[in-house]
Amino acid sequence: MTDHPATPATPAAFDPVTAPGTVLVLVDLQQWIVDRPSAPLAGADVVRAAARLKTAYEDAGRPVVLVRYARLDGSDGGPDSAFNRFAPAVAARPGNEVVTKYGIDAFDGTDLADRLRRLGATRLVMAGITTEYGVGESVGTAVGLGYPVAVPEDAVTALAAPAHTAALHAFRRLGATVTTTDTLLATART
Predict the structure, then answer these.
(1) In this predicted structure, what is the pLDDT of residue 17?
(2) Which of 49, 29, 38, 148 minimizes the C-alpha distance to 92?
(3) 64 three-class SS
(4) Residues of the chain with confidence (pLDDT) below 50
(5) Mean pLDDT in the chain?
(6) 8-state DSSP, 154
(7) What integer pLDDT is reported at residue 5 of this predicted model?
């Protein structure tokens, strides 16, 4: 049976960057994914927002987890291949956790839940590509595990704008907070 995190204050009641228990999870920000067509934002825009969050978390000494997708059959050269490198602005640094997934959901078939437990996670900020697939499935699982989740809408994008909008509505229905990178970072400065 999976242990559920303690129920913390709502996202608006804590500093989303420096609060103990808050973990940033970035999903599928490998360069080949970032370079694919997306909407309503280009992948490069998402990387810029995600990099701002990542820097703030690292500067505050808070955990950052990078999730990458790799093909199970190895036809992409494997998780550590040049093909699967993260976009340079969000590349893994010492102290970052890296999780490799072989499906859509960052939790499915990975040790992400165990890592979050080990990191003392009680709430998550999740961003990446795509809103309706990798991020969306992972947000759904995280909420199901009992984590309060915040998603900065300018740090996620989809294959098409309507899918992005629908995914953000679905996050709200699940109880996740949809916010912006600026709001998260401004909260950390107050």
Answers:
(1) 74
(2) 29
(3) strand
(4) 1-14, 190
(5) 91
(6) G
(7) 45
Please report which residue ranges of 69-125 form alpha helices under DSSP H. 112-118
From the centroid of its chain, how far is CA 98? 12
Q: Which residues contact 174 (CB under 8 A, 6 or more apart)?
A: 139, 140, 143, 149
Place of tokens 């102290």: 95
pLDDT at 12: 41
Structural contact between residues 181 and 66, judged by C-beta atoms closer than 8 angstroms: no
CA atoms within 13 A on the CB side of 32: 10
> Which residues, in sequence order, are CB contacts of 124 under 8 Å at separation 6+?
22, 23, 24, 25, 116, 142, 147, 148, 149, 150
**The residue type at 64:** V
Which two three-digit tokens encode residue 34?
A: 């970032």
For residue 27 the two structure tokens come to 């999903």
In angstroms, what CA-CA distances link 175 with 51, 150, 161? 25, 9, 22
Q: Which residues have CB under 8 Å from 33's CB, separation 6+?
A: 43, 69, 129
What per-residue confidence (pLDDT) applies to 169? 97
